[in-house]
Amino acid sequence: MAARVLEVAWRGGYLRLEGGDDLVITASNSRITLAQREIVIEGLFMGLREYPLDRRGQRKVVYIDFAFPLKGLSGQPSLLIMDSGDYSVGRFGVSYTVIDGVEYYVTVYTPPEFLYENAVLSSERLAIFMLGRRQVYLSDEGKIKRILLV
C-alpha cells in the first residue's frame, strides 16, 4: 500500500510530498506540482533550459533553475524520513538520496500516462527527463510558472 504523504529531511528542515493524481512537493519557499502534462512552480523560478541526451535527439532533459536554493519546511513533521531509500507516494515512485555534506536529491518516477518519465529535484534545480520530440512551453502567470508539455 502506497503512502499518500512522505516527509523527507531537507536542508535543516523537511520537504512534504503529497501524492494523488498529481505529486505536490512543498518547501518553505516554493511549491512544485508534477502533473500529467505540466509542471507548476510557485516561487523560486529563474529559468528553463533544454538539452538533448543523445545525438539522434530521441531523449532530452529540461532543467528548471531556481532563483534561490529550495529550503525545507520548519516545524514538526508527522513522520520524517532521514535515510536514503525508495518509497511509494500515491501512484508515484520516489527515490530519496542523501549525500552527506553535499546535497539531497528526490527522484520521482511518474505513472505511465505522464508525458515525462522522471524528475530529479535538488536544492538548485529540477531536471525533467522525456522523449526528445516533446515540445516544452513556458506560461508566466506572475509568481506561478507553468511548464507545459505537448
Give a structural overview.
- The chain has 150 residues and is mostly beta strands.
- 0% of the residues lie in helices and 58% in strands.
- The protein has no helices and 15 strands.
- It has strands at residues 5-10, 13-19, 23-26, 31-34, 38-42, 45-52, 59-66, 80-81, 85-89, 92-99, 103-109, 118-121, 125-131, 136-141, 144-149.
- Strands 8-1-2-3-4-5-15-14 form an eight-stranded mixed β-sheet, with no helix packed on it.
- Strand 10 (92-99) and strand 11 form a beta hairpin.
- It is globular and about 45 Å long.
For the biggest sheet, the summary is: 8 strands, mixed
Form type = globular
- Segments where pLDDT lies below 50 for 5+ residues? none
**Element string (H = helix, E = strand):** EEEEEEEEEEEEEEE
Describe the strand arrangement of the main beta sheet, using strand numbers: 8-1-2-3-4-5-15-14
- Radius of gyration in whole Å, from Cα? 15 Å
Give me the secondary-structure category.
Answer: mainly beta
Distance between the termini: 32 Å
Beta-strand percentage range? over 45%
Strand tally: 15
Mean pLDDT: 94
Total of helices: 0
What percent of the residues sit in helical stretches (DSSP H or I)? under 10%
